[in-house]
Amino acid sequence: MTDQSEHLKVTLKPRRGRPFFARHPWVFADSIANVEGDKAAQDEAALFSDDGTLIARGLYNPRSKLRLRLYRWDDAPLDDTFWADRLDQAIALRRSLPQPFPDDDSRRLVFGEADGISGLIVDKLGPALVCQWTGQGMYRRRETIERLLVDRFPGCAIVSLGDPFTAEKEGLNEDQIQPVLRLGQLDPAEPVVIRHSGLQFRVQPMGGQKTGFFLDQGVNRQRVAAYASGLDILDLFCYSGGFGLAAAKFGSAKSVLGVDSSKAAIALAEANRDVNGLSPERVRFEPQDVAKALKRLREEGRRFGLVVCDPPKYARDRSGIDDALKAYQRLNENAAAVVEPGGILATFTCSGIVAPEDFERALAGSAERSGRTFRVIERLGQPPDHPVNLACPESRYLYGLILRVE
Q1: DSSP letters of 302-357?
Q2: Which one of 35, 87, 113, 310 has the fewest CB atoms closer than 10 angstroms to its CB?
Q3: pTM of this structure
C-alpha cells in the first residue's frame, strides 16, 4: 500500500460510492464528506467510500465543483510511468483503427474521459500536436505530457491552449488558455495544410475554433456525401467547408452552397475548395447569418436536394436544455422548408447534455410544424477516434440523423 501522507484523503458521503466503483471519473463537491491533507500543497488524492474502502486515485481541485477527477482504480501513484502508459494506450487504440484514407495525417489522439485522461484533449493536425487542457490538474502536468508526446511524435510542434468555457470553473486564468507554441516550429500567421478523410484542409492550430479543426465529423461527411449524387447541396454552419467539400468531391454533387456567419470561416472554406481542386462555379460559400440566409432562400423559392445542418453547441449545462431543444426545433423547421420533396436533411447536435431521444422529439416537432414527414434513414455519431466510455456517458456528445423529408 502507498503511504497515506503522500496524497489527500477524500471521503464520500454515505451511499455516494456506486458511480465511482463503476469507474465514473467525476466526483462533484456535493458527494464529498471530508478532505484530509494540505490542499494548498498537493492535488493528488485517494478516494474512499464512507466505510473506508479505497475506490480510486485522482487529482483534486478545490476551486471547481468538479472537485476530483479519477484516473486509476488501484492504490498507486499518478507518476510519469502512469501517464506514459495511459498515453500509450490511447495512441495504440488510434493506430489499431481502420484507415479508409491511408494518406490522412490528422486525428484525435486523446479524448479526455474516453481515454482515461480526464482534462486533456490532444489532436494531431498534420505536423502539429494541439493539447487542450480542460482540467487544472492536467494543466499542471503539461510539461510531463508534452515531453511524452515529443518522444512519441518527434519533429511535431506542440501547441498548448485551454478551453474558455471551462477555464474559469477550473481556476485557469486568461493567459493559461491562450494558444502558445510550446515546442517545435510553427508560424502562427500561416495555416497548416492537413489531410483528413480524403480531403485537404487549411487549419490554424493557434487560432481556429476548438483545437483548430473539427476532426469529429470526418466519417459523417463521407456518410452524408453518399446521398449527394446529382443534387444541389446547402451546407449550413459550414465553417471551413467540410460537408460541402466532401459532397462535391466524393458525392458528385451538382452544386454546393455553404453558409456561415464568420467571414474568416468562409475565407478558409474558399481556400479549402481551391486546395482540393474544386471550382468556385460549382462550390460557393457565403458569409451570412444562417437564420437570415434560410429566410432569404425561402423567399426566393430555392430548394435543395440535400441540406446539412451542423450548428454549434446550443446548451452547455442542464439549465439550457429546454432553450436548446426549442432552438433545434426552430432551426430544423426552417431548414426543412428549403428541402425539396423527397430530399435529404442531415442534422446534428453537439450538445452532449441533449439526449438523442430528446433531439429526435425536437425534430418530430419540426416535422409537425412544417407539415412535412421526416423519415430516419441513418443515425450517426462520433468517429472511432472519439470513442465513448460507457462508464462516463458524458463522453458521448455528437449525434446526427439523415432524414428523408417528404
Answers
A1: --EEEEEE------SSGGGHHHHHHHHHHHHHHHHTTEEEEEEEEEEE--TTS-HH
A2: 35
A3: 0.94
